[in-house]
Amino acid sequence: MTEFLQQLINGLSLGAIYALLALGYTMVYGVLRFINFAHADVFMIGSFAGYYLGQHVPAGTLWGGMSVLLAAMLICAVLGVAIERFAYRPLRGGPTLNVLITAIGVSLLLENGGQLVFGATPRTFPQIFPFTRFQFGHLIVSSNQLVVIAVAAFLIAALQLIIYRTRMGMAMRAVSLNPKAAQLVGVNINTVIAFTFALGSALAGAGGILYSMNYPSIDPLMGVMPGLKAFTAAILGGIGNIPGAALGGLILGGAETFIGGSQFSTYKDAIAFGILIVILLFRPSGLLGRRTIEKV
Amino acid sequence: MHFPLRTLAPFTLLALAAVMLPGCKPKVADDSVIRVGEFASLTGKEAAFGQSSHKGTVLAIEELNAAGGVLGKKIDLISEDNQSKPGESSTIVKKLITRDQVVALLGEVASSRSLEAAPIAQAAKIPMISPSSTNPAVTATGDCIFRVCFIDPFQGTALAKFALSHLKAKRVAVLTSVSSAYSVGLSKYFHEEFLKDGGDIVADLKYSEGDKDFNAQLTTIRAAKPDAIFVPGYYTEVALIAKQARELGITVPLFGGDGWEAPELLTIGGKAVEGCFYSTHYSPDIPTEAVQTFVKKFRARYNGETPDAMAALGYDSAMVLADAVKRAGTTDSAKLRDAIAATKDFEGVTGKTSIDADRNASKAAVILEVKDGKFTFVESVAP
Amino acid sequence: MRLPRQHLALAAGILGAVIVSLFSNSLDAYLLDVALGIGINIILAVSLNLVNGHTGQFSLGHAGFMSIGAYLSAACTVFIGPQLFGSAAPGALAQNLLFLGALLVGGLCAAFAGLLVGIPSLRLKGDYLALVTLGFGEIIRVIFQNIDKLGGALGFNGVPAYTTFGWTYTWVALTIFTVTCLVNSTYGRGFLATHDDEIASESIGLNTTRYKITAFTIGAFFAGVAGGLFAHLKLSIDPRGFDFMRSIEIVVMVILGGMGNTLGVILAAVLLTLLPEVLRPIAEYRMVLYSFLLIVLMIARPQGLLNFRLGKNRL
After folding, report:
1. C216 is in which domain, residue-wise?
2. Which are the contacts of A167, defined by CB distance < 8 A and separation ≥ 6?
3. Do B45 and A120 touch (CB under 8 A)?
């Protein structure tokens, strides 16, 4: 039983990170109808930002950790907006395949540029939040895991607030429903899209920091796998659906953890892809998504 | 409207052929130097190993050249980087053999990359000496492939005996990397010996290289209550495994093989790897004159850096090759190959090196412990 | 009897390949290696072009099909070969027949996998299809990594060196011939129609489903053959060498050459195989340049660098 609970906590912690990443994918898809392949690499940049910033704050303090987290989120937001402005905006209105390929290009650029600048050897992520272990019988919960879950929950709640209680959020929802109609009623598409990217990338940056807190070995290719899995989570929950992304993240994190602890642990990665394929084949709209019929 | 593709195709092929013809056999190579090829992972995921081994090799070559070279000729070391990627080694080895016309090859550290290059060297009958690939399949490829280190059956056995005698661990959990030939091999040999000697493997789990999250596997291991955990992988994952194990409250020691040896194990693992053990080929603390002189020379050449096992083996592989050239009196492939095969009791930095009938070296292993943030010598296990 | 131009070109191509092959012993082994690499990449790029370019289905799992061909053809020559010939080395004719058989087995198994992947996936569009094919490619890789009989993590070693210039370029000629003739035939117009507008095609009675599956299957077949040639060239195959980075490298060739433009794709394959070799001294910068190229290309010239006939927005 303890083992089950322990795996549950592990799964929750991993799932929370996938959820944060998945939110970025789902928001961009909702507004622009394309998959931002470079999202996972913004996540990686967030980690490296945290690595370098973390050298300048004293280790293990609450304010130190929070400031690194916020700074990394800011840096990623700026990066996301820049990518949109220079790589995606010129292709808006064209075939979506072109943007997809450009996104792959940006992703490769960040990964290989990262390898060039940071070197491919993994670095150790500094311990930016204070660290303790809580023990309940045989159940051990590390404070890092709790921070991850708490921060992720907070950010998801904040996101819901922004989307459903602010004007900008309403504009985002409008654009995701029908961009042309939204423009007709006076919504500035460019601003909304830039804001969406900023928000999504900030979440990716936060995800990067939280991920590196739990798995402190960072390298320029670290975003590839989590990115694919987070994307699976977004689709699982229903792409374009925000609570769906969170749900998908948690389910995927849990599944991966339980498989990882069993004798099939080497098929761990294949599980994410298996789920992806099954979902796309049988219920492409995802668990919480709406079925849309393509009209001619 | 469109290019006449169908008529263009054969012309393209003929054009290709025309380009190829000037590329026929390159001009006769310069015979005033001895060209030796080195292929290593100088960049990429296992750069630490490649860089280390490279530094040792370069030190040896510089030393030999300063003393006048071998057979009156200087040695020209041509190094190529395979970026730690699969598929690259075979191309660069082909290039070294045909374009650079090397007389021998030094490489690689990782067994999988040695396995990739070995068939090519064997087909060209160019002797290849691996400094530290421990999987037995490497030298089994052919009679031109050698190594100057011990092999995994020996390492696995040594570790099994160490676990039982020194760690007093009768119940061991094993965590193997399935994406590395080295890890799978070492794990297999450990299993065999440990079970034969009466030990009990209470958990046997797997992971893949590049994984960051081992909580799932470690939780299962924790439930099995082992006396020690055997992790025959590479340092990048081992450090994380140790950290996560400690975070889950696992206090028993971890132990593993020579894949642990890199400074990153300490920087990433930190306190988590304290009190853990691993086997390797040498230790800079061994008080023999050969080792201490080598350590001094290495530190002088490389800014005070202390050489690790990969550097020492890189050094020895170059020295063994030079010694063989001297004994053969020529760089002719067949005679050089025979001379390497006949190496007996060569005094290397990593111990007395003799090449046996399987083209492996029968050497002692040393067990190191991580104590106070440093690798400390524990004991030596003779073959 | 007058043979159509295409058939003449094919015959000339095969003849040229065999002739050069006879001289291959006097060629620099490294250059030969590069030339064979070029040939294999041409096969991969042209076969992917059928799926991505001509039929407009964005597949990111081509390396998976290549790996199936590689592993299964290697399994044929390594495991079945000795059973047929005993321990004696096979004679030249027997060896070539075995190799041909192995390549066909590899190709057909890859084609079968293409069928399996294609049938359920064809309902998906654009991005989704890209991801499913990527997922399949990764699953195939993980499966091979876990099959110990085929080497598992060690990789499959000891593959005999059967790939020659003749074999490679014969298959290059066959691939180009098949794809070109297919697409330019009456039946083949269906591929292009599917690419242009699926709904319109369906409404005039074209079975776009069948075309998509056909494209996938044929593309996978040639990818499998390319994989077999690759295995018998490198003599050792590692599952990690067939990951989605490999798929993306092939996709870049198709994009650079212009999706749907066979000649452009061939030239792109040649260029992108030679470039890493030429840029070996600055190998670290190679990938950065690659990715930059991709971005600039899509923004400035999405029809491909080497595509000289299609307009800017007609992909």
Report:
1. 5-244
2. none
3. yes
| Tens-digit pLDDT profile for residues C187-215 | 888 888 888 888 888 899 888 888 888 99
Neighbouring C-beta atoms of residue A277, cutoff 10 Å:
20
Would the pLDDT of B47 be above 50?
A: yes
Residues contacting residue C235 through CB under 8 Å, at least 6 positions apart: B90, B119, B120, C157, C158, C159, C160, C161
Q: Do A94 and C313 touch (CB under 8 A)?
A: yes
Among C120, C143, C255, beta carbon nearest to A101: C255
Question: In chain B, what are the domain boundaries?
Answer: 33-150+288-364, 153-280
Q: Which of C251, C63, C231 is nearest to C156 (CA)?
A: C231
Name the B residues in 317-346 with CB < 8 Å from any A CB.
none
Q: What pLDDT, in 10s, does the model give residues C48-104?
A: 999 888 888 888 889 999 999 999 999 988 888 777 776 666 677 778 888 899 999
Quick one: how many helices (H) and strands (E) in chain C?
A: 13, 2
Q: Are C295 and A102 in contact (CB under 8 A)?
A: yes
Q: Let me know: does A107 contact A115? Beta carbons within 8 Å.
A: no
Task: State the nearest Cα–Cα gap between B222 and chain A, in angstroms.
Answer: 9
Three-class secondary structure of residue B321 per DSSP: helix
Using the Cβ of B223 and the Cβ atoms of chain A, whether some distance falls under 8 Å is answered with yes
Kindly state the percentage of chain B with pLDDT values over 90.
31
**Chain B contact for C35, CB < 8 A?**
yes
Residue A58 domain flag = yes
Residue C98 within any structural domain of the chain:
yes
In CATH terms, B33-150+288-364 corresponds, of 3.40.50.300, 3.40.50.2300, 1.10.3720.10, 3.40.640.10, to 3.40.50.2300
The answer to whether the CB atoms of A296 and C251 lie below 8 A apart is no
Does residue C26 lie within any of the structural domains?
A: yes
Mean pLDDT of C264-288: 81
> Domain tally for chain C?
1
Model pLDDT, residue A280: 78
Question: Looking at the whole model, is its pTM more than 0.90?
Answer: no
Q: What is the ipTM of this complex?
A: 0.77
Cβ-Cβ contacts under 8 Å for A253 (sequence gap 6 or more): A11, A12, A13, A14, A15, A16, A17, A18, A19, A233
Chain A residues within 8 A of B44 when measuring between CB atoms: 120
Quick check: do B33-150+288-364 and B153-280 share a fold? yes
Report the b/e string of A67-105 with b at 16+ CB within 10 A. Answer: bbbebbbebbbebbbebbeebbebbeeeebbbbbbbbbb
Residue-level pLDDT at B381: 82
CATH classification number, B153-280, choose in 3.40.50.2300, 3.40.50.12780, 3.10.620.30, 2.40.50.430: 3.40.50.2300
C305 part of a folded domain = no
User: A96 is in which domain, residue-wise?
Assistant: 15-223
H/E stretch holding A218: strand A217-218
Contact B213 A260 (CB under 8 A): yes
H or E, element range at B47: helix B47-66
Per-residue pLDDT, C225: 95
Pick among B2, B6, B78, B176 to test the C interface (most C CBs inside 10 A): B6
B377 pairs with which residues across the strands?
B368
A-to-C residue pairs, Cβ atoms closer than 8 angstroms: 115
pLDDT in tens, A188-202: 999 999 999 999 999
Q: Which residues of chain A approach chain C closer than 8 Å at the C-beta? A: 34-35, 87, 90-91, 94-102, 104-109, 111-113, 115-116, 228, 231-232, 235, 266-267, 269-270, 273-274, 276-277, 280-281, 284, 296
- Name the burial class of residue A1, with classes exposed (0-12), middle (13-18) and buried (19+) by CB atoms within 10 angstroms of its CB: exposed
What digits encode the pLDDT tens for the residues A240-255?
788 888 899 999 998 8
Instruction: Give a yes or no: residue C315 inside a domain.
Output: no
